[in-house]
Amino acid sequence: MSFENIKESAEEIQEKVKDVLDSNVAYYKLWLFKVATKSATVLLKMLLSAFFLVMFLFFSSIALALFLGKQFENNMLGFLAVGGMYLVLMFIVYFLKEKIVESTILEKFSRIFFND
What is the spatial distance between Cα 58 and Cα 82, in angstroms, rounded to a whole number? Predict the structure, then answer.
């Protein structure tokens, strides 16, 4: 082989390696865009769901407190009963948070990232 052939072969190899690298960069940009879009969509859905759940709980709590206040003939006792119920729920969630929250989030995000 002459020096010219070797030089042309090296240039072809460089071009092909550059093409492969450019293709890989483009692929990973698209993959990152896809994952970021799915993550943002899931996050937005969760935030909207949480917002409406909080609004529902807020108005339901007020209604329950007023109902219990009417039953106890003292609105303050109704609101205290609802507050006590939330305090008990807070302790339950605190002690079960790893099972409830972490496993749910891990499952949802692993589906997004790895099941494609």
Answer: 11
The structure tokens 């305090």 sit at 87
For 57-111, the pLDDT digits (tens) are 999 999 999 999 999 999 999 999 999 999 999 999 888 877 777 777 777 777 7
Tokens encoding 93: 């969630």
Q: Rounded CA gap, 11 and 15, in Å?
A: 6
- Distance from C-alpha of 62 to C-alpha of 38, rounded to nearest angstrom: 36
What single string gives the DSSP state of each residue in 28-90?
HHHHHHHHHHHHHHHHHHHHHHHHHHHHHHHHHHHHHHHHHHHHHT-HHHHHHHHHHHHHHHH
The answer to whether 67 and 56 have CB atoms below 8 angstroms apart is no
**Rounded to two decimals, what is the model's pTM?**
0.61
Quote the tokens at residue 115. 């099941």
53-62 own/partner pairs: CB under 8 Å, 24+ apart: 61/86
